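Researcher: Re-running this chain for the archive, since the previous output was lost when a drive failed. Same request as before.
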Amino acid sequence: MVDLKGCPPAILKPKLNVEGHLKAIKDKGLGPSDPTQTNNDFWDEKARMWGMLQGDARCRLCCNCAFYVNTTQVKDWIMNTDTRNVKASDLPLTPKWKDIETFPQAYCTLLDITCSPIRTCDFQLMGGPIDDEKFQLPKYKDMLKEDLNEEH
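Model: Regenerated C-alpha cells:
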C-alpha cells in the first residue's frame, strides 16, 4: 500500500485535477491539444511571448520545466489513486484533446495538475525535471508541501 501522506489534493481528487486542467488551458496557455501535430500557431504564440524563435520555444516542454515533479513518490501516488484514469480526451473541450500517455506522468506544482511531458504552458521555466535525485536538494525538498498549504 502506498502512503498518501503529503500527496497533493489534485492527485488525490480527480475532479480537482480536471478543474485545474481546464483552468490551465483557459488561463495559462496549457497545450497544445494534440502534440503529435505541427501546431504552428500555438508555437508561434509561445515563441512571440517568450521572445525566441519557434524552434527554441518547441524545446520548452513540461518535461524540462522546474515545476515538473517526476519522482518515484509522485508516480506511485498517481498509479495508486483514481487520478491514473484521468485522460486528456475526457476533458470537456472542443476540439478534443489527444491522449499522449496511458496515464499521467508527473505533477506540476505551479498549475497543481498532473501533466504530460510533451506539453507546455505560458509559465514554463527551464530547470527540470525534478526527479528523485534533484528532489533531495534543499531548493526542491519542500515543493510538494507548499502545495498542501494552498487553498483548494
